[in-house]
Amino acid sequence: MKSNQLIRGYFLFLALFVPEIVEAQFPSRLKDGLKTYLSSDSTAFIKLNFVSQIWVRYNENNPGTTINGQLENNTYDVGLRRTRLVLSGQLTDRVFFFLQFGQNNIGYLSPRKVGAFFHDVTGEYAVLKKKLNIGVGLHGWNGPGRFANSAVSSLLPLDPPIFQETTNDANDQFVRKMGIYAKGKIGKIDYRISASKPFITQTASIPIDPLSDNSSYSSMIPKQAYQGYFMYQFLDQESNAGPGMVGSYLGRKRVFNIGAGFVSQARAMWSKTVANDTVYHPMNLWAIDFFYDAPLNSATGSALSVYGGYFNYDFGKGYIRNVGPMNPANGVKNGSFNGPGNAYPAIGTGYSLYVQAGYKFRNDLLGEFGTLQLYSAVQYSQYDRLKDPMVVVDTGMNWLQYGHNSKFTLNYQYRPVYASSDMKIMSHKSEWVLQYQIAF
């Protein structure tokens, strides 16, 4: 299937089916979740939120890609990128709980009837209201950047910047670890810090590279991991009730933040020397970033969103991790360094620059069918092991029928493919995704 045929098919799908979706008004009671109040002054409550993101995709596979041993140059598939339920509640003026349950990346290659899992299970106590809350459990209060944990229902581009999810499923459970955290606001400073016990790598849901000359995750008993992220919020204050950071407010807030964060874990990584001795390496990651999201014209609803940052990662000598979101393939024959499907070297020892920007048109640009938001995102990484810079470009459009509650996203990604022989770029591949999101 050619990419232009796919695009025509996308818009045919929209023309045929979307008008039926957008005829009625989205219930205002559900725009921020379904709340049940427990007190007469509405300070105590329980809230239910839901999000599902469904992908229709056409991918130019990396060289040598196979599916169950059969060569496949291109793949068309449909999958559930994320489906989650969040239950949270302010039970008293000091007691808060947060629970997230769901599943990710269910595609045609997935084991059938797989169980969903807990993303977050935390209880929290306000020691000093707003200034210091202490929590414990399976949590995602992470560093080093803003999108180390994203509020996925409010993303600007199709996906968050995956390289910020630094240990995803290697020594955590989908960016969550068991531990304790502290969060709060002191004036215009918003902070989060945590101390957690990483999961052992023997139970990782991704392949862990074996001990070699290049750094990889150690299989020894893990040391404590420390993380933190701090923001100075110049304009409107953002909520820190949950750990996920908003991607775009669509002009509802005027936000400008400068942030900095870190991740540190002793003896997290290892490699072997020429003499076959094992050497341990700490994981030390840090970043600085900024976030601006504000209306351009409050009367019409047009808005601008810009995020960018510098990320310095040290996982030890030569560490690289290829990531293929909801990978449509499961094997490779005589392929590239990237591996199968849509994978590319997203995370590694070195530094990255990242920027994303979006422009939301005025409200009701399309009348009763909502409005549009255009965006682009670029990751530029200089990883020690790669001979050429790693640059991934995403660009696309959000069709916002009812803000983030009901939206279509059409995304185009252009990624590099590296040769295993010299770690230089040998070609580029692309991927088209049409996503429908329903959320409340």
Number of strands: 23
Number of domains: 1
CATH superfamily: Porin
Distance between the termini: 35 Å
Mean pLDDT: 94
The sequence of SSEs as H and E is HEEEEEEEEEEEEEEEEEEEEEEE
Strand arrangement, largest sheet? Answer: 2-5-6-7-8-9-10-12-13-14-15-19-20-21-22-23
Descriptive account of the structure:
The strands form 3 sheets. The chain has a 16-stranded antiparallel barrel with strand order 2-5-6-7-8-9-10-12-13-14-15-19-20-21-22-23. A 3-stranded antiparallel beta sheet has the order 4-3-17, with no helix packed on it. It is 4% helix and 52% strand. A hairpin with a 4-residue loop joins strand 5 (74-90) and strand 6 (95-106). The protein is mostly beta strands and 440 residues long. The longest helix has 19 residues, at 3-21.
List keywords for this structure.
single chain, 1 helix, mainly beta, Porin, 16-stranded antiparallel beta barrel
Question: What's the helix and strand layout?
Answer:
Blueprint: H1 3-21, E1 34-37, E2 45-60, E3 65-67, E4 70-71, E5 74-90, E6 95-106, E7 117-128, E8 132-139, E9 177-186, E10 189-197, E11 216-217, E12 225-233, E13 255-272, E14 278-297, E15 302-314, E16 320-323, E17 331-332, E18 344-348, E19 350-360, E20 371-383, E21 390-400, E22 406-418, E23 425-439
